[in-house]
Amino acid sequence: MKHPVYLDYNATTPIDPEVIKEMIPFIDSLYGNPSSSYSIGRSNKEAVEKARSQVAEFINCNQEEIVFTSCATESNNLAIKGIAWANKDKGRHIITSAIEHPAVTEVCKYLSSQGFEITYLPVDQYGRVDPEQVKEVIRPDTVLITIMHANNEVGTIQPIREIGAIARQKNIAFHTDASQSAGKIETDVNKLGVDLLTIAGHKLYAPKGIGALYIQKGTRIENLMHGAGQERGMRPGTENVIHTVGLGKACEVALRDYKQNQHNMMASRDRLLDGLVSRLGNKVHVIGKLENCLPNTLSVAFENVSAHALASFIGSDVLISTGSACHSGETTISSVLQAMNLDFRTATATVRVSTGKRTMEKEIDFAVEVLVNAIKKLTL
Ligand SMILES: Cc1ncc(COP(=O)(O)O)c(C=O)c1O
């Protein structure tokens, strides 16, 4: 068992050994430029196209509907600004939710400074958007709906299929940020009914510095970068072949092992919660609803315990994150917990624990022990 025990897989994941193996030849010797016509160039081009087909198969789309980017933030920027700029003659209204990652919210804020109007939909106490409310706020000038597939802090899964059906009916482009859901729950773009979908490599056992955006064929979108014609002009610049190959392999592995991984992540998450509840009883409050949550995520508050104090107290043994930030003695609550209307006391007591596909029972049992001892010491 590795020490400290890592239980923050929503922050990032280690690179899968199978992924590393696939990348090594491109680090070692296959250094050609995919645009070159001689053999090491061609082999790089083929590797990028193989990765594209692996990502496409993973989310059930056509190869030419995948654009490689540097990260989820870039994919979200390309999706949101790209749709906004391409359709500004049709309208300047965008619908999003109050619980998006800054990689969406900040893009929306920027667009609002450029004359776009943004509607931020509220969520219920479990962090879920109501599709009926999406319907209600649609206007004739709405050009984009962007709602995340699953939330990074509390794990709540959004009703993407229902929203997708509404968007289709109204002929409005629909983007979802699937950074957290890919590899944990199904991300089949046809079933979800989305036009654009964001993938983050490093949340999926691929390296940091690689992402992808699914853009449904026929979608009116502008590219943000201009240069040579790589990625069919949508994202010019010499391809990051090493990481692209890694993302492709990670998607192949995620698709192949999907059921087993989902089972393991959920079994470890549930073992952790059971362990905590059996030792601490009603001091444990689950934030959100486990029936509608990512299988690996547990957002939980411990009564009368500061989340910050807890995370730093156990930090050399177990790695978790908190739903609030502490700067110069002042505590700010995350926008997600605020949108869920959590009271200050509960929000400042909320931690996020997220398990991985290889999290072991003994790691969970150790984490329970460490958490319980710390909570007993720290209870106010
Ligand atoms: C839901 C979601 N979207 C976007 C991002 C941004 O990912 P990156 O920093 O890799 O661009 C994250 C990262 O935590 C995330 O959880």
Give structural notes:
The strands form 4 sheets. A 7-stranded mixed β-sheet has the order 2-8-7-6-5-3-4, with helices on both faces. A 4-stranded antiparallel β-sheet has the order 9-10-15-12, covered by helices on one side. Strands 1-11 form a two-stranded parallel ribbon. The chain is an alpha/beta fold and 380 residues long. It has 13 helices and 15 strands. The model has no long low-confidence stretch (mean pLDDT 97). The protein has helices spanning 17-28, 39-59, 72-86, 102-113, 131-137, 160-170, 189-192, 241-256, 258-280, 307-313, 335-339, 344-347, 361-378, and strands spanning 5-6, 66-69, 93-97, 117-121, 142-146, 173-177, 196-200, 211-215, 284-286, 297-302, 318-319, 321-322, 324-327, 330-333, 350-354. α2 runs parallel beside α8 and α3 packs parallel to α4. It has 2 domains: 5-12 and 258-378, Aspartate Aminotransferase, domain 1; 17-256, Type I PLP-dependent aspartate aminotransferase-like (Major domain) (Aspartate Aminotransferase, domain 2, 3-Layer(aba) Sandwich), CATH 3.40.640.10. The longest helix has 23 residues, at 258-280. It binds pyridoxal-5'-phosphate. Residues 71-73, 101, 103, 148, 152, 177, 179-180, 200, 202 line the site of pyridoxal-5'-phosphate.
What secondary-structure arrangement, pairings included, does this model have?
Blueprint (H helix, E strand, L loop, with lengths): L4 E2 L10 H12 L10 H21 L6 E4 L2 H15 L6 E5 L4 H12 L3 E5 L9 H7 L4 E5 L13 H11 L2 E5 L11 H4 L3 E5 L10 E5 L25 H16 L1 H23 L3 E3 L10 E6 L4 H7 L4 E2 L1 E2 L1 E4 L2 E4 L1 H5 L4 H4 L2 E5 L6 H18 L2
Parallel strand pairs: 1-11, 3-4, 3-5, 5-6, 6-7
Antiparallel strand pairs: 2-8, 7-8, 9-10, 10-15, 12-15, 13-14
Helix pairs in contact: 1-8, 2-8, 3-4, 9-13
The structure holds pyridoxal-5'-phosphate.
